[in-house]
Amino acid sequence: MSGGYYVPATSRWPILGSLALGAMMVGTGIKLVYDTGTPLMLIGMASVIIVMGLWFREVIRESMSGLYDAQMDRSFRWGMGWFIFSEVMFFAAFFGALFYVRTFAIPWLGGEGAKGVSALLWPEFVAQWPLFNPPDSSVIGPERVFSPWQLPLVNTLILVTSSITLTVAHEALKSGERKTCRHWLAGTVLLGCCFIVIQGVEYYEAYHHYGITLEAGIFGATFFILTGFHGVHVIVGTIILACMLVRIWKGHFANDHHFGFEASCWYWHFVDVVWVGLFIFVYVF
Q1: Do 275 and 151 share a domain, yes or no?
Q2: Per-residue pLDDT at 69
Q3: Disulfide-capable partner of 111 in 18, 119, 132, 247 (CB 3.0 to 4.6 Å)?
Q4: Domain match, 224 and 255 both
Q5: What secondary structure, in 3-state letters, does 110-143 show?
């Protein structure tokens, strides 16, 4: 401690995390280009998980030892805030790509707008969304698309409900009602698992019955990039909330000192908001 502010000792986790992440990304790149990088990708992925687990364990132990004060709490809040902002920009890029294709690129190929001359490339192309008939005949578009009022609507209701149950759990923790917090948090984790299972069913249907694949033109690419990355975030968020549930069972967190739990709430609510945007702009319109 120095003047009431905790200064952590030299840590090996940042460099180990960087090496693990680098190995995972290099392996992924080799896998995509040469189809031979699977072992390196899996080793890197496992290393990232191990480093994260050990690093978080160390942070939890420091917090439980009373080493963190109000200034450290503000540092954590700023860090989590900037992390979520980076996630907002991450999804904004993919939403931007979707809007660009739908608003500009496809109409241009159909002969509209200032760059309508692009229609000379494929004169028989019909500008529509979803794009069932891509201009390049070598690309086969989807056969049909999902009705937003079936599985997508169910998943939307599940995630919106999960935000409510998580808020109840958070308020219960602040009130010292730990049993109530555990029950509602367990319900949130269960809802997250339900979302993941339903999205898995949807992906199976997409590939086997709807013709929606990663090779199904721009619609298939944008569909899986947006919903796939969101699905990964739901999986990560569910794991985080499950870890919070274990910590609650073990007696961690105080009524007025539980930023680890609060940060997981921030993350989950962000994931829910992103899904509402996906439901509107990917499934409905």
Answers
A1: yes
A2: 81
A3: 119
A4: yes
A5: CCCCCCHHHHHCCCCCCCCCCCCCCCCCCCCCCC
Is residue 248 domain-resident? yes
Number of other CB atoms surrounding residue 217 within 10 Å: 21
Phi, psi for 121 (deg, rounded to 5)? -70, -40
For 191-218, what is the mean pLDDT?
94
Q: Which value, in Å, is the radius of gyration of the alpha carbons in the chain?
A: 23
Domain housing 62: 1-66
Q: Is residue 57 located within the same domain as residue 90? A: no
Paired with 5 in beta bridges are 2
pLDDT at 2: 46
For the CA atoms of 42, 265, 183, 178, the dihedral, rounded to the nearest 10 degrees, stands at 120
Does the pLDDT value for residue 105 go beyond 80? Answer: yes
Per-residue confidence (pLDDT) for residue 1, from 0 to 100: 45
CATH number of residue 40's parent domain: 1.10.287.70
Distance of alpha carbon 238 from alpha carbon 268, whole angstroms: 8
What does pTM read for this prediction?
A: 0.89
- Structure confidence at residue 67 as a pLDDT band (50, 70, 90): confident
HSE of 283 in the Cβ direction (CA atoms, 13 Å)?
A: 20
| % of residues, the chain, pLDDT over 70 | 97
Reduced to 3 states, what is the DSSP secondary structure of residue 259? helix
In total, the chain counts a number of residues equal to: 285
For residue 250, the one-letter residue type is K
Residue of 8 and 83 predicted with greater confidence: 83
